[in-house]
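ENTRY TYPE: protein
WANTED: fold as tokens:
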Amino acid sequence: MQTHARAVVIGGGCVGAAILYGLTRRGWTDVALLERTQLTAGSTWHAAGLIPSYARSINIGRMIAKTIEIYEGLEAETGQHVGWHKCGQLRIANTRDRLDEYKSYMSVAAVQGIRAELVTPEEARALWPLLENNTDMLAALYHPDDGHIAPADVTQAMAKGARDRGAKIHLNTEVKGFERLAGGEWKIITNNGEIVCEHVISATGNYARQTGAMLGLEIPAIPILHQYWITDAVPEVMERKRQGLPEMPILRDEGFEGYLREEGDGLMFGPYEKTEHLKLFAENGVPEWFGADLVEEDFDAVAWNWERAMELVPSLGRVGIKANVRGPFQMTADELPLVGPAWGLENVWIAEGVPGGILWGGAIGYYLSERIVEGANSLDTSELDPRRFGNYANKEWTRQKVRESWGTHAELHYPGQDMPAARPQKTAPSYDILTRRGAVWGVLNGWEMPNWFAPDGVEPRDQYSWRWTQKGHYVADEVRAVRTAVGLVEMTPMTKFEVSGPGAEAWLDGILANRLPKIGRVNLSHHLTKNGGVQAEYVVSRLEDGTFYLISTPRAERWNFDDLSKLLPKDGSVELRNVTDERGCFTVVGPKAREVLQGLTEIDLSNEAFPWFGVKSGTVGLASDVRLLRVNYEGELGWELYHPLPYQRHLLEALLAAGEPHGLRLVGLHALESLRLEKSYRAMYRDMNPELTAWESSLDRFIRLDKGDFIGRAALLRQHQDGVKRRSVTITIDTDGASSLIHEGVYHGGRLAGRITSGGYAYTLGHDVAFALLPVELGVPGTELEVPILGETRKARVIAESPYDPQALRGRM
């Protein structure tokens, strides 16, 4: 075996082969792949090979389209047959909610560049004539470019493509350990010797947790067991072939919660296991004996699916069974792969937890190799970044969430739905008090966080739908309280870092695109990618000379800490501390916020003593060392109170008592979303992300090109000189009964012109407000637009930034 390589991929399934192929296509030929047995031996060889492009996320949809593009070109490039059947996919809607889901998706498909159409029940039956007895069908979603592929063949084709460009593949080579060398390289220890490399890429499938453990990582993925059956020859399928008719599309019907497709002259049926019947695999490590193996059939787990499927498709019940295929594949809490940098380790990359390696292989190979070779991605891959899960994602949490995610795979899911498994897990001391006051809880980064508050007499349970629900009235009351009186928002889950040391100022200044604030001041700053995209957004406070306090979104705790840690100087002149779990936060906000707070603190809260974007530390009530920041996400007079968590219960009770005479109301995340839209405050990972540059996200006022060098400055200069072609602008949408969400297409004169990056109902204004990414020539206030919402075209128009209080006078009250 070779002893050196620039990059080593571990794992010879479809994903590993795709990464090796992707690296060689980008010019890295000194690369190797290590496989413990044979290529495809894990989950790849027994996969069903389905390629469904259905995803409401624009980024996921574009990634799946990339998989299809790569697979369709493999045969011509390598000369190897890949068994690609572009038969299409048909999804049946039997309920209004499922049809709403498909209508909402249709507003996104065009933006993704994916062909899809809603067809009538008659058209659906013409596409799938064996579906004889579905009398509940309302419509169906048809993807003509979907299909299925031969898993082993496509893997071997990518392996050949990589070999042809110089890559080496070492079979029967099991990794036993890793060692970081003094020069920064990695030594990989195997049963066949050692290999030293610059980059390690882990794509080990069912072995992910074992591989991660060797690297000191707890990978939040566990394999589940799934099965499908292949029938004997079906006369109706044989007759279609005799007539030269096309292969029927892959069928998915919520009536039987599974998929049906042609397989040879028969049918393949893959029913989805419910949570209570789902079995996990290799929770404590893959057994030594397991290789290219299957496990025993479990018909009882899906007996109801079979019964219902045979009712709807009678031909399925008229033939015998040829084979059952039951085996493991990886699963994560959100059914998305873990792809990107490993936290805490230099030049270690993860491609694990992939729930469908055939579906994801091509895209992972393309975009992970791009990230490794180019240093950034051309598409926003944030949804896959493995650092989206924090240290709360331990084994037991993962076990429960994996069972839930796959066990509800075929069920209806709604926008903003917070699933119940493994909750509550992380709670602030305020939890019991807020629960008694009607909190309806959501979850952020493992933390429980109030979504909204149910008034007396209303059940404190969330209401999920693609349309407006009764809870909108209660959220409206919370918004009104912030605009007219005072609200209190529980913000403890916010990510919080402390940066200190003699080198802290120079270090931060070389990272962030804005100038650093002066002592006692606060500003908004962005950490950009090398391409000028937005990697992180921070509220930055300078507490004293050489000491800074950084606040970012809850989801980014592990992610931001890892990015900053990897940039720390080696001389120890900068200390970075994660204090997220040490401090809670309440926002007291609204025109009466000063009246509520001033009686609890000796700190002078007047404009003269404590101006807008100021920070002071002191005592509030009995709580010591409270950091008061005069900033907020709501666009009103207010302070964020970052306090040591042991004081939280007292501080909350004191604030509630002080606020009662002023009409203080508890406020949740849903109201916060409406309030920030009314102020044109952009949200991280939606309106800002690594794909969109700071100019495109309209962050101009936070970028200081004249302050000296910072990460991404050169890219921003180039784009500024070349001209920015598209920008984020604020639009209004005339809505009734349902709101914009994210990713919907934006049309001008009937032609697709851009897309929504986030949107929702603005309760103060009485209509939807959204951010739209548009060509600069259309981003002019007054431009008339159209936005499809649940299949209906709604009028929209570009407006000036900050439709509520555009001069920001209320925050300075």
